[in-house]
Structures are given as C-alpha cells and as structure tokens.
Amino acid sequence: MESTGRPYLDLVNEPSLEKLRALLASYDDDAGHHIIWVDRSGKAFIDRLPDNLTPVGWEMKMGDIVKFRLETCQVGKNWGIGGSWGIGGQVLNYQ
Known about the structure:
26% of the residues lie in helices and 23% in strands. It is α+β, with helices and mostly antiparallel strands. The strands form 2 sheets. The chain has a 4-stranded antiparallel β-sheet. A two-stranded antiparallel ribbon has the order 1-2.
C-alpha cells in the first residue's frame, strides 16, 4: 500500500473500506490543506497542498499523471471517515 514511500489506495486491484481508512489515517489534517487524487493507474493518494500553490496550480504542476482529484480538504476540518464530509462512504458507494 505504499508507492515510492507514500501511502496509497489501489482502487483497481485492492479497493476496500479498511484500506481507505488506513489511507485517510495516514495524513495530518492539521498540517495544511490536502488534495485527494487518483493517478492514471488507479492509485489514490493524499497530498498536502504546498503553501505556494492553489489547487489548480498543484494540478498543473502534477501534469497528466492526475486522472482526477476531489474537492480540496481544508485544514482542520476532519475530512476523514466520520468527519464533516465522510469521504470514505462516498468513495466506496460511488463504485
């Protein structure tokens, strides 16, 4: 569940609520704004948005590796499972 030392969720081969929970638990919501995104191979990642980039600037810098991204998770809003957005349930119910 790690790619180049980074946690990720393989949505193609191993999607599960448990692995999604582990991915969400791997980031510090208070460290800054975060972007949840999926690459072209179907791996989902959570990246902290650098202070010097907007979400659009981040996406432009990442280039065509990004298949799609979700709404930016604002710092301190508890976006994980059971948080204010309940991402886990939404992502897995989308399948």
